[in-house]
Each structure stands twice: as structure tokens, then as C-alpha cells.
Write a structure and sequence with these properties.
heterodimer, A: 2 domains, 10 helices, about 45% helix, B: mainly alpha, globular
Chain lengths: ~160, ~400
């Protein structure tokens, strides 16, 4: 009887070995902190927290660039954080003398938000840049920190 | 690349995320499930007439099952990460759990059943062959040469039990694919509890048709006579399954038309415009009504064997095309309309890109290459050399 099911026992042994190999491999490759808080590596939180800070925050920018901050307060871009356009600038804030943020190309930058798309809210300013500017950089006419051309701050007041 | 859009689309709907590779995935798993269910006809339901296709059906299922995850790997990228599904299973993700459904079906059902069924042949071949094939056969015997009457009887019984488990597993494998689409509640083209059932029946249809075609083709290539009793029976089962499948799809359609919820006008417009060719012409008329009519004709009218063979070949090819069109219409169709029901986009298929037509064609050729290797290694038809070695015809005692 045993002889006739020998091949099945051998198969069961092969499967058992495969299962044991899997369990051993799993024990070695799954990070120890996996599942500590959820379906991810718990230690990842500490690793991410220990990475150097890239963003300075608009308060840091406004400490030095108060003139720009005042200008921004007069226009709709008051709600847009400095680094949303200028990029992460923690390095620059730490060492303003030697590290300067890159110069921006407004022909590309402005279109990221203001290129016309029917899915955008109706009241949101949007243009077909090819028709509207034909390659001319936006800051030729618009001042990005206060974009509206006919804005008269003394009559319209500050918008929050 | 500018994608033509009609009406209003949300920005993230303009470009289709699920490409032709995701069309291939349910198509290929459907062939697997269908081929296996055809094999189970002989094993469990004792339909002796289809016996000549039993082993071929199993090998076809295996060849396609090995390729089934590849379209997904190519679509997602980072294939090395797929193993993490097993290491850290994400129990609340239906897509992640597919890894286990796949593994179960491959390891516990298909490989096991093939091994048990072929064990006698493997042992005999390990004794008669030489060189590298001999090494492969020796490994496959797991070191046991026992092919006594009693041990083969035990194999037969265990194999029967595995097929018994295999049927619900095949339903699970492909029902799961339907479930993935049917459970997307935000998409009215997909969201339907009938989806897994429709997918299972269409899988059976495509698998049966594919094995029938492969059997006819391989028999012809070997210069043997096609067993007409066998193909007649398969064609009959194909027709029955197809009628059930078509009825279910029509019931679903009827329900949608009568219910006419807020998505109906948009979807109806899509079927009459963008999906007209692929859905109405290819899937319904060419791929469903025509093969069912052809198969029904063979039941009512007397045709010669040659005429029947030709009719089955045409009906089989049309069926496979029709089921492919069905997968296409589900996957691509479900992404062509806006969830605002106000606009439609277009599917632009690449050619030699990662998700283009070329890799899709390669992925469709690959299972046939694997099948060719498997057939060389484990011939699904009675082997003259093995029969000459004194044993009775393979699987003959059942």
C-alpha cells in the first residue's frame, strides 16, 4: 500500500520543502517593522522624517522679500505659496548669499495652471496660450506676483 | 499625441489607462478557464466522446495560464515587485488577492492534474529517452518509478478529486476577473453583479472553441483523421454554452435598457457610435449570432463530415474573435465615455510601445510556443513508442 502512494508522498515532501523555503525567504526579506502601523514599513516614517528639509516655507521667504510679499497681497496669487512656483528653497534660505533659486520661464510655468481646459472651474482665469501669447513670455505683460494688468490697488483694496 | 475628444471629458479621462494589454488579460485567463472546463467534461462528467482533447485541453490551459500574468506585468512595470503580493499579502485588495487565486490554480490544480495524468508516460519516457530530455523526465518522476496498476488507480482517484476542486477553482479564476470589473461602482459600463457570471460563460465559450480549433489543427498537422464524434460533441457543448452566455448578455442589456438610469443615454450613444463596429458588428453579429447559427445548423441539417469540419472551424474562429471583441468592448468601452456622461474620448493604440500592438501580438504568440514545447515534452496523444513498450494506451483504465 505504502509503495503505491510513494510518489504522492514524494510530491507532498517537495511541496512541503517549497513551503518551508517560502517561509524562510519571507522571514528574511520582509522588513521587521512591516505592519507596525499599517500595510507599510513602520521604520519608513523615521527614515522619511530624518531626510533634510527641502521647503523653507513662505514665512522664511517673506522675512527677506517683504516687498514681494506686499505686492502679492494685492493680487489673487496671495494664496499661492512662494515655493509653488520658485521650487523648494530651503538651501537658499539657509545660505541666501551663495545659493540662488533658478530663474523661471513664465511661458511654461504659468501655463501649468492657466492653460485652458473645460474641466477647470468657469471663474478660473485660463487661456489657450498658443492664441493668447504665441510664445511670448507671460511676464512681458503680467507681473506674476500681481498678475492683473489694470489692477488699481488704491481703489480695489487688498484681497484676502 | 493629440487624442480626439468629443464633448466634455474630465482631464484624467482623456487618455485611457487600461490598454490592449488589459484586454488580453481577461481574454487569456478566459481561455485557461474554458480549456480546463472542457477537460473536466471528460474527467468528472464522463463525456467519453471528448476524450481525445482531454490532455490537449490541460496543456492549453497551462500554456495560457503561464502567460496570463505577463500583460499585467508589462502594464504595471516593475515585475520584480509582483512577488511581494505573496510576501506581504494585502487582504483588502481584490487585485492583490489575484496572486493567490493564480497560484492556487497553477500549483494546486493544473500542474498537479497534469502531473498525475502524465505520470505513467513520464516514468516510461524517463526509461526510454536519452540525454537532456531524460534528465527532465527523471526530475519529473520525483524519483519514483512505480507505475503499478494500483498506483495508477490511486492517481486516477486523486486526479478526479483535483478536477472536482478544479471546476470551482476555474470559476473562481475567471469569475474573479469579472469581479474586478463588476465591482467598479463608479463605472456604469462595468458595475454589474452579473459581470463575473457573464465572464465565466464567455470564458467557457472561448476555451472550448480554442481547444476545438487546436485539436483540429494539430490532428491535421500530424496527418491523422479528426475524430468526428469528438468534434461533434465539443461543437454541441460550445453551442449550449454560447446560448447561455448570449442569453445572459442579452438579459443584462434588457435590464439596462428598461432600467435606463442616468448613464443610459450616454452609453447608448457610445454603442451606436464608437463601439458600433466592435460591439454590434464584430461581437454580436459576427462573433456570436453567426457562430451560434452555424452550430445550430449542424444540429438540424445533415452535413458531410468535411462540411461539418469547415463549419466548426469557421464557427470556432468567429467565436474566439467574438470573445476577444467582448473583452475589448468591456475594457476599452468602459473608458471611452466621461463619468459626467457628457463626452467621449478615443483609444489611441501605440505600436512598438510597451503597451502597444506589437507586445500584444507577441504575448498572443507566446502561449502557442509554450504549448508547442509542452506538446513535445508531454505528447497529448497516444504515443506509439510508449504503447510499443508494452503498456496499455495512456489513461485507458478510467
Amino acid at each position: 500500500m505504502f509503495k503505491d502512494i510513494e510518489h504522492l508522498i514524494r510530491l507532498a515532501v517537495v511541496m512541503l520543502i517549497a513551503l518551508i523555503v517560502f517561509i524562510v525567504v519571507r522571514a528574511h526579506v520582509v522588513p521587521r517593522s512591516f505592519g507596525q502601523y499599517g500595510h507599510y514599513r513602520g521604520a519608513a516614517l523615521g527614515e522619511i522624517a530624518s531626510r533634510p528639509v527641502a521647503l523653507a516655507g513662505h514665512e522664511a521667504c517673506e522675512t527677506c522679500h517683504s516687498d514681494v510679499a506686499d505686492l502679492k497681497k494685492q493680487g489673487k496669487h496671495v494664496v499661492v505659496a512662494c515655493e509653488a512656483c520658485h521650487g523648494a528653497a530651503a538651501n537658499h534660505a539657509d545660505d541666501p548669499g551663495s545659493i540662488k533659486p533658478a530663474k523661471l520661464d513664465t511661458a511654461i510655468l504659468c501655463a501649468r495652471c492657466h492653460e485652458a481646459n473645460s474641466a477647470k472651474p468657469r471663474g478660473f482665469p485660463q487661456v489657450v496660450t498658443a492664441d493668447h501669447a504665441n510664445g511670448v513670455a507671460c511676464d512681458t505683460c503680467h507681473q506674476p506676483h500681481r498678475p492683473k494688468i489694470d489692477l488699481q490697488p488704491e481703489t480695489k483694496g487688498t484681497k484676502k | 499625441m493629440q487624442i480626439p475628444v468629443e464633448g466634455f471629458m474630465y482631464p484624467n479621462e482623456v487618455e485611457l489607462q487600461w490598454s490592449i494589454l488589459i484586454v488580453l488579460y481577461p481574454f487569456i485567463t478566459g481561455l485557461v478557464a474554458g480549456a480546463f472546463i472542457l477537460a473536466s467534461l471528460e474527467r468528472v462528467f464522463r463525456v467519453q466522446a471528448v476524450k481525445p482533447t482531454y490532455r490537449l485541453a490541460l496543456l492549453t490551459a497551462l500554456a495560457f495560464l503561464l502567460v496570463a500574468p505577463l500583460p499585467l506585468q508589462l502594464h504595471l512595470g516593475h515585475p520584480e515587485r509582483s512577488f511581494e503580493m505573496y510576501l506581504t499579502p494585502h487582504r483588502s485588495s481584490a487585485m492583490a488577492m489575484f496572486g493567490f487565486v493564480y497560484l492556487w490554480y497553477l500549483m494546486a490544480v493544473l500542474l498537479l492534474e497534469i502531473w498525475l495524468d502524465y505520470r505513467r508516460d513520464i516514468v516510461l519516457k524517463s526509461q526510454t529517452s536519452t540525454g537532456f530530455p531524460r534528465f527532465i523526465y527523471r526530475v519529473l518522476t520525483l524519483g519514483s518509478d512505480n507505475i503499478s496498476e494500483r498506483s495508477l488507480q490511486i492517481d486516477e482517484r486523486v486526479g478526479y478529486f483535483i478536477t472536482l476542486i478544479g471546476i470551482p477553482s476555474a470559476f473562481l479564476l475567471h469569475g474573479y476577473v469579472g469581479f474586478i470589473f463588476g465591482s467598479v461602482k463608479a463605472n456604469p459600463w462595468w458595475s454589474s453583479p452579473l459581470m463575473p457570471i457573464v465572464f465565466i460563460f464567455s470564458a467557457m465559450v472561448s476555451g472550448i472553441a480554442a481547444v476545438m480549433l487546436l485539436y483540429m489543427l494539430s490532428t491535421r498537422l500530424r496527418g491523422r483523421e479528426i475524430d468526428m464524434r469528438c468534434v461533434d460533441t465539443i461543437a454541441q457543448y460550445l453551442m449550449y454554452t454560447f446560448i447561455i452566455d448570449f442569453s445572459l448578455e442579452m438579459l443584462d442589456l434588457l435590464q439596462r435598457i428598461y432600467e435606463a438610469d442616468e448613464s443610459f443615454r450616454s452609453l447608448d450613444f457610445m454603442v451606436h457610435t464608437r463601439l458600433w463596429t466592435s460591439q454590434v458588428i464584430v461581437q454580436i453579429l459576427l462573433g456570436t449570432v453567426t457562430p451560434i447559427t452555424l452550430l445550430a445548423l449542424t444540429q438540424f441539417l445533415k452535413f458531410s463530415a468535411t462540411a461539418r469540419k469547415r463549419i466548426y472551424a469557421v464557427a470556432g474562429v468567429l467565436t474566439v474573435i467574438g470573445i476577444f471583441a467582448m473583452r475589448w468592448n468591456v475594457v476599452i468601452g468602459g473608458q471611452l465615455f466621461s463619468k459626467s456622461f457628457l463626452g467621449y474620448t478615443t483609444y489611441k493604440m501605440g505600436f512598438a510601445t510597451r503597451e502597444g500592438l506589437l507586445p500584444a501580438i507577441a504575448l498572443m504568440i507566446l502561449p502557442f510556443i509554450i504549448l508547442w514545447v509542452l506538446v513535445k515534452l508531454l505528447p497529448p496523444w497516444p504515443d506509439a513508442a510508449l504503447s510499443a513498450s508494452g503498456a496499455t494506451a495512456a489513461h485507458g483504465t478510467s
